[in-house]
């Protein structure tokens, strides 16, 4: 397995810009793709903002900021992004059809040695991997938001993922300063499966008038030492994103623990998506 020096990140949004940033920060050449100029410009703007905040807090030097930005380029063409890449990380929205379409295009343009990774938080690695000719080089690399701060990466191996691919993904996560865990391909993996159960039950509790969002969150933050309560986390992730995941887990696992609460559906229909819309369980 060759060294990972060049990384293509497909998606400049919430997760993609963070993956591109941390990859560039360790010296990799990074090409960040999105569907249009506005999207890639927004991603670069968020990276600059993260780095500027790091400088203000004494976590990042001016030299490190400039070096990170120098390692980054953007493109609106997938083929241009993946040409010569050692690792391709897809960070598109949680749509199986979209991910399959992206990897069909990637497979035609990426080098044969490149590792192909998806940042999905819950979708089947085996099904996405079926989009490429060699599923042995396909793996899940589930990062957490915000990527430049959160330490965890779930490395998810599918039934066809080779040991070399799995081990290379683990090694790269460690190069990024992350703590990888290795998880078998199963609906929701480890983190989403556990986190969604907690999040859905917290929504049902609020729906039933058990307690306020603040007090439900405080119960987990102070009683169980969670850094963030389940309702605030749902606002951060996005209520629409969590609805999509819980619908998928309810369908694939058949457990009522994953049944989407009526309140969650109603809030999404009303456009109350959490932090990104300014209103969710909290006002942002």
Q: Note the total helix count.
A: 12
- Judged by helices, strands and strand pairing, the structural class is alpha/beta
Helix content: 40-55%
| SSE series | EHEHHEHEHEHEEHEHHHHH
> Overall pLDDT, averaged?
96
Unreliably modeled segments: none
* Largest sheet, spatial ordering of strands: 3-2-1-4-5-6-7-8
Q: At the third CATH level, what is the topology name of the largest domain?
A: Rossmann fold
The CATH class of the largest domain turns out to be Alpha Beta
Query: Could you name the CATH homologous superfamily of the largest domain?
Result: NAD(P)-binding Rossmann-like Domain
Q: How many β-strand stretches?
A: 8
Radius of gyration: 19 Å
Coarse morphology: globular
Describe this protein's structure.
An 8-stranded mixed beta sheet has the order 3-2-1-4-5-6-7-8, with helices on both faces. It has 2 domains: 6-184, Rossmann fold, CATH 3.40.50.720; 191-277, N-(1-d-carboxylethyl)-l-norvaline Dehydrogenase, domain 2 (Orthogonal Bundle). Helix 8 packs across helix 10 and helix 8 (191-207) crosses helix 11. The protein is 48% helix and 14% strand. It is α/β, with parallel strands linked by helices. It starts with 5 loop residues before the first strand and ends in a 15-residue tail after the last helix. The longest helix has 20 residues, at 37-56. Helix 6 links the parallel strand 5 and strand 6 (138-142). The protein is globular, with a radius of gyration of 19 Å.
